[in-house]
Structures are given as C-alpha cells and as structure tokens.
Design brief:
heterodimer, A: 388 residues, alpha/beta, Peroxisomal Thiolase, Chain A, domain 1, 9-stranded mixed beta sheet, two-stranded antiparallel ribbon, 18% strand, B: 130 residues, mainly beta, OB fold (Dihydrolipoamide Acetyltransferase, E2P), 2 domains, 3-stranded antiparallel beta sheet, 7% helix, globular
Chain lengths: 388, 130
C-alpha cells in the first residue's frame, strides 16, 4: 500500500464573500493548491469535491463537474455530501483511491456559500443534516441539537457555561494571526458569557459563524512524489470513518460520540499510533461543546475530562495538546462543505512550519484532523505525519 | 391519477394520528428495543421482526434546550423548549408546552400529544406535564 503525500494546499479567506460565485471561490483555493504543490493541473486524475447546501444557497446542483471546469481540470469529478463532514469524506476517498493504485494525483476539498441565505434560512438549511421526521419537524435546529448534547453532557459529567466559554476564548486567540480566519480577534471570557442565548445552554459565542469559503488539498502517491521530485514532507498515514444513528433520540446516550471513537481507532491503527502519540489536533468545534466531545472521542482526554481542558490550559497553544491552532470552526469559520479540507490544509501548514502558529508545535510530528457530520452521526479522522 | 402502493409499513403521519387519538405506539424488536415509524429494520438490533406496542403514558425529560433562534418555519414559536423524552424502550423528540421554560428540568415527567406550530399549520409532537 502506497502512502499518500500532501503535495500542496490552498484556501480562500473564510468569511462573507458577497456576490462571489462558489465556483470562483473553489477555483481560487484549487489554484493556490497547485501553486503550493508546483504540480501541473493536467496531472490530476480526479476531483473529490465536498459541498453540503449548494442546492439551497446557490440553487446549484451537480457541482462537481462545474468545480472541475472552474479549476481548469479535465478529469472526472464527484461531489461528496456528508453534511459538515463532506470534505473530510472527499479527502478520505481520495486517500483510499490513491492507496488502491487507481490514481496518483487527486484534488480533494470543498466549497460552501452560506451568507447568501438570511439567518432563518441558513438555520433551516443547516437543520437538514438532522433527521427530518423525528427532529426537524419537532423544531430541532443545528444549535439546539448540540444544546441537547451539552445538557446531557453536563448532567452526566458536570461542567458549565464558563467551561465552554474558555474554549471560545482559546480558539479566538488562536485565530488572531491566521490570515484565513473569519475572526482574527480575541474575545474575553465575559464577552462570551454575556452573549445572547441561541439554544440554552449555548449562547452566540459558543457557535461557529456563518461562513463562505473553499479548501483544496492536492494528494499524490509516494511514487508520484518521488518520480516527479515533489517536495511533500507531510503524509496522511491514517484514515478512519465512523457512523451513528442520525437522530439523537435513537442513541443510547448523548454525552459521547461513538462515531468519532470508531473513526479514530481505525485511523490510529492504520498509522500505527495511539492517542498518546498525537501532538496536536484540529477538531470539529462547530459548537464549543463539540470540541469537548471530539477530544474525548479521539482519546486525547478521558470521558468527563475534556470539559475543563481549555480552562486548565491543557489545550491552549502552549498546552500539552494544542487543539484548533487554526482558530477552529469557532473562530476560523465553518464553510460546511469546505471544513474537512481546511483542517488538512491547516495541519499540513502547521507541520511544515509555514503556519503563523507553527512555533507552538515546532517539534511535533503527528497531527490529527477530526471532521464531523450533523450531531456526529458521521465522523472522519485523519492522521498526518511529517518527515523530520 | 397516482397509484399509491401500500403494504404493511406504518407511515410517520399514521404514527402522529395514533398519538393524536391517544393510541400512541412504538415499534418493538424481539430484543426489546424500541423505535418510531417508518421502520423496516430496528436501528438497534437490525431485526426486521417489528411489532406495534403501546407507548407508555408518560416519559421523563432526558435533555432539553430553550431555543431562542429557530428556523423560519418556527419564527412565531420562539422561544420554545425542545426536549428528548425517555419513554422506556423508545425516546421521542418534541416541544414542551404548558410550563414556564425556565422551570423545565431533566427528569420532569411528561405525556405526549400532537398539536400544531404557532408559525404554520404543521403538526408538532408536544410534551405536556404528566
């Protein structure tokens, strides 16, 4: 089995992109990835493209061939949709295709336009990742679903709003120097705690923003990199995916996310590592509570210990296991179908040493990406390692 | 004219009808797991041998949230209390009515009914204090 190298990464700034078309955003990220990789576009065997709500936000279906055209590619293109984990799955399938020998060069990533919709409509659009019959018709929204999980976590393990606010403060601090982040501003604990409620116990600063953006990662086989003299020190050495019941009501409990545990076990096994080997991670913090669930599901913290990790400084940039050095979904932004690719791009930059926050992990060799769909009814985990 | 092909599977609307008529039920697998229609396969055991069993009269609130920002189709309903209530073999998601949102607590006993949203005429699963 060949290993898979990250030859290049590209991102657009995350934020509100006005009337820019999604296709032009993705093209911008893709061209940046080709420039970073110094690989000719003609070498691409296929495009794996993640997108969630394009049919609603831009009234555009059939986006994959459109994005291939926009990025100047003349290869087969397929859209992957797994809610917020769409690009994570697109990357995973690229890894599997390269490993199988079916392809040497795959462009993976995604794009989402969200600011084309007003708050009510974007709330409704995000809610389609939940169960339409059992949840959406009963008034469940994306924030309220995570609020249900947060309350269940508090009931089982303890913790409170202040613990969650420390996560928001940490991720905003991490985003300050990240040129691609939507919010390059620090926030105070008081500001987070005083923000208006969205779905109790979650308030505005517990939630990721509404974001437009695109990501692209150019993945190549070990052999292709060697033959073509491509400098690609970062490899994807493990990939895993897990699933769960779509509706919260059908799960045994709501304070843990077994899909993440399944995905992590598979990815760690492939990479030949354990959770103790993970130096840092980019995790799916669509809400502050989601970061807690993620770091526990990844085995980085014991169940019940993740809630205090940010407050105790264990996950801050100078902590034992920095989490979301990019700013995370919380502060960097969450263009849903692009996020999984963005996490791979950020870890690659952190490991290569060309990220503004690389100094925080200058001796790190293992970074983990965790991308979750809906209320973690799907989860994708990747292990990235760098040649030192 | 459209021909609707029907067999034995119960639809979600039929489940709402049954709740509304005070004849609520759930689908039970031989292993004792519960789920709600429409189901061909038990989401817990994988069994296809599902029987209709009466839904217990009361459940207890397992988790809840007061929703201040809703989707467009719930604009006039906010703020509302969303909850998952545990009815023993099966859990149900709905909106809690008939109580002060600030006084709802995990463990509260509730019954389930079908009412309509404030914003639209769509039917809604509602919990009221038991």
């Amino acid at each position: 089995m060949t290993s898979v190298r990250v030859a290049g990464v590209g991102l657009t700034p995350f934020g509100a992109h006005g009337d820019r078309a999604g296709r032009e955003l993705f093209a911008s990220a893709a061209l940046a990835a080709f420039e970073d990789a110094d690989v000719d576009r003609a070498a691409v065997d296929q495009l794996n493209y993640g997108n969630f709500m394009g049919a609603l936000a831009e009234e555009q279906g059939h986006q994959a061939p459109l994005m291939a055209e926009a990025a100047g590619l003349s290869c087969p293109a397929t859209r992957y949709e797994e809610a917020c984990a769409s690009a994570g799955v697109a990357v995973r399938e690229a890894v599997r295709t390269i490993r199988s020998g079916e392809a040497d060069v795959v462009l993976a990533g995604g794009m989402e336009r969200m600011t084309t919709l007003d708050t009510g409509r974007v709330t409704a659009a995000l809610a389609i990742a939940a169960d339409e019959l059992y949840e959406v018709r009963a008034g469940v929204t994306f924030p309220s679903a995570y609020a249900l999980m947060a309350r269940a976590y508090f009931e089982r393990f303890g913790g409170d709003r202040a613990d969650l606010a420390h996560i928001a403060v940490k991720n905003h601090a991490n985003a300050v120097d990240n040129e691609f982040a939507q919010y390059q501003t620090e926030i105070s604990l008081e500001k987070a705690l005083d923000s208006p409620p969205v779905a109790t116990p979650l308030h505005l600063y517990d939630a990721c923003p509404i974001t437009d953006g695109a990501s692209a990662v150019l993945l190549v086989s070990e052999e292709y990199a060697a033959t073509n003299d491509i400098e690609a020190p970062v490899s994807i050495t493990g990939s895993g995916q897990g699933g769960d019941n779509l509706a919260l009501q059908d799960r045994e409990q709501m304070a843990q996310t077994p899909a993440t545990e399944i995905a992590a076990a598979e990815a760690y096994d492939e990479a030949g590592i354990t959770a103790a080997d993970v130096d840092f991670a980019e995790v799916h913090d669509c809400f502050t509570i989601a970061e807690v669930l993620a770091i526990e599901g990844l085995g980085l913290f014991e169940p019940g210990e993740g809630i205090a990790a940010a407050r105790e400084g264990r996950t801050t940039a100078d902590g034992e296991t920095p989490i979301n050095l990019s700013g995370g979904l919380k502060a960097k932004g969450h263009p849903v179908g692009a996020t999984g690719g963005s996490q791979i791009a950020e870890i690659t930059r952190l490991l290569r040493g060309d990220h503004p926050n690389s100094d925080a992990v200058d001796d790190a060799t293992v970074g983990v990406a965790h991308n979750a769909g809906g209320t973690v009814a799907s989860a994708v985990v990747h292990v990235l390692e760098v040649d030192r | 004219m459209t021909h609707h092909i029907r067999d034995e599977a119960v639809t979600y609307d039929e489940w709402l009808d049954a709740i509304d008529a005070g004849e609520g039920f759930y689908l039970r697998s031989p292993e004792g797991h519960g789920s709600l229609p429409p189901r061909r396969v038990c989401p817990h055991s994988g069994s296809t041998d599902l029987s209709r069993e009466p839904l217990p009269e009361t459940g207890s609130i397992e988790t809840y949230t007061v929703v201040h920002v809703g989707a467009t189709k719930f604009d006039d309903d906010t703020p509302y209390v969303s909850a998952v209530a545990d009815f023993g073999p099966v859990a149900v998601t709905g909106i809690v009515r008939g109580v002060d949102p600030e006084s709802v607590a995990v463990g509260d006993e509730v019954g389930v009914t079908v009412e309509t949203r404030e914003t639209t005429d769509d039917r809604l699963v509602v919990f009221r204090p038991a």
